[in-house]
Structures are given as structure tokens and as C-alpha cells.
Amino acid sequence: MFFVFSVVIVVFSILTVTSRRILRAATFLLFVLVSTAGLYFLLRFNFLAAIQLTLYAGGIVVLIIFSILLTSHISEKLPAPGWRKALPAAFVALFGLVFTSSVILMNNFQGVTSTVERTDITRIGESLLYTGKFGYALPFEVISILLLAAMIGAIVLAKKRKD
Amino acid sequence: MFEGVPLNWFLILSTTMFFIGVYGFLVRKNLITMLMSIELILNSVCINFVAFNKILYPGHLEGMFFTMFIIAVAAAEASVAIAIIINIYRRLANIDVEEMNEMKY
């Protein structure tokens, strides 16, 4: 099952960055995000998978598709990147991939399976609003202020100016 | 199921996704496709956090919270970026990064 999800993720990621129709690229991105949510379900982070589905696949992709519809024509094809540009980028990406993978494969991580797992929603909610050790009350408040600021900023930026 | 899948494979999957995103960010010229590459990069980092949390520290929830905050920051970033892109489109009538050489108001 892991291999199915990872093959889907890799193939559709490559299609996302190489597709020349922008709306198709957005649809491939949607597939990538949904199969990432499937990976989270596989790891039994159900709440996180739900967040991924609603916020990423439901929110951000819809936002991106709306902005595509506002800013470009559907039938228009993006120009193919020239070799002069694609070759160095591919070289950088391949070099980074090989280097990082070799570093990862040098490490031998020992998985832990004996501890009891508690990832239920009660524990998530309690530690999200807990101020002691392993509590996340302050980042929670900071992220809410950040979201408010982003909302106001987006409204102000995209507003039509009167002049 | 994920039992028997070592942590290394999750890490290699997310590394692959990360560098595909880097390639897209370097190659693309359209602002929205660059934004999609950034989403790929952020998503790969999320996979890293979740896999570390589940396989090395199954009793904790730290990786999950970091992933939640990354997703929230990504949502904020996407909304502001799309507002900027729409504003640029209104001014210059295209969203190609190579056409954008005036930052003056």
C-alpha cells in the first residue's frame, strides 16, 4: 500500500512540474495531496489526514484553480522551458536527490513499536490548549494571529483601488 | 500497511518530492506554477515530520503538531500569494516572472 501511494505521489509530482497546461498541473497537484493524505491514514494519523484533505486538497487547490481561471486562458499552453534553463535545474535537483538519499541511506534508523500509541482526538485537543510541557497553547495563538493577519492582508491586497 | 516499511523509504520518498518541487521552482516561469512547486516542497516536509513521529517516537505527538502548523502557514502563504498574483495580473496583464521588472508603485 505504501508503494502504491509513493508511486502515485512521485509520478503526479513529476507531472505537476512538467505539464504544460496549467489547469492540468493543478489537478495533478490535487492527486499528490490526496495520496499524501492516504499516507497519513496509513500511518494512522486520522485527524491529520482529515486536515490535509480539507485544508490542502479542499482549500488551497480550489484557491489555486480559481486564480488560474482568473489569470489565464484554459486552452493556452505554457511554453516549454528551454534546455538552457531545464538542464541546470535538472542537474541541481538530481545532485541534491542523490546526495541527500546517500546521506539518508547511511543512517540506520531503528523503529520503535513497543510503546502504547495514543493519537486520539481528545489528547490532540488537550495538548493543543495546554500551557505546560508538551503543550502547544502559545503556537496555537500565534498561528491564529498569523491567519488573521494573512486574511486581512489578502483582502487589502486584492481589493480594487479607487483612483 | 506501513509495518515493515523502514523510515528510510519515507525519507527518500519525501526527498524525491522535495527535489521535484525544487526543479519545478527553477524551471517554471508562471507565478501560479511556482506556487504549486512550493506547495509540493512544503508537503514533502510534512511527510518527513509525520514519518519521524510515527516510527521513532510513537508515543508523542510533536511531529503531528508541527505538520498542522506547517499546513496552516501554507494556507496563509497561499492566500496572500494569490492576492499578490491577482494584483500583479490586474496591473501588468500577465503573471510571467520574466516580464516583471518594475516594483515601483
Overview of the structural elements:
- The complex is a heterodimer of chains A (163) and B (105).
- Chain A is 72% helix and 0% strand.
- Chain A has helices spanning 2-18, 22-42, 46-71, 83-106, 121-128, 137-158.
- In chain A, helix 1 runs antiparallel to helix 2 and helix 2 packs antiparallel against helix 3 (46-71).
- Chain B has a single domain (7-99), classed as Orthogonal Bundle (Helix Hairpins), CATH 1.10.287.
- Chain B contains three helices and no strands.
- The termini of chain B are far apart.
- At the A-B interface, helix 1, helix 2, helix 3, helix 4 and helix 5 of A face helix 1, helix 2 and helix 3 of B.
Name the descriptors.
heterodimer; A: 163 residues; mainly alpha; Four Helix Bundle (Hemerythrin (Met), subunit A); 2 domains; 72% helix; extended; B: 105 residues; Helix Hairpins; 3 helices
Can you summarize this structure?
The complex is a heterodimer of chains A (163) and B (105). With 163 residues, chain A is mostly helical.
Described by the principal axes of the CA atoms, the overall outline of chain B is: elongated
Structural class based on helices, strands and sheet pairing of chain B:
mainly alpha
CATH-assigned fold name of chain B: Helix Hairpins
Beta-strand proportion of chain A? under 5%
Report the sheet with the most strands of chain B, covering strand number, pairing sense and barrel closure. none
Largest sheet of chain A: none
From the 3D structure, determine the CATH topology of the largest domain in chain A.
Answer: Four Helix Bundle (Hemerythrin (Met), subunit A)
Specify the overall morphology of chain A: extended
The separation of the N and C termini of chain A measures 57 Å
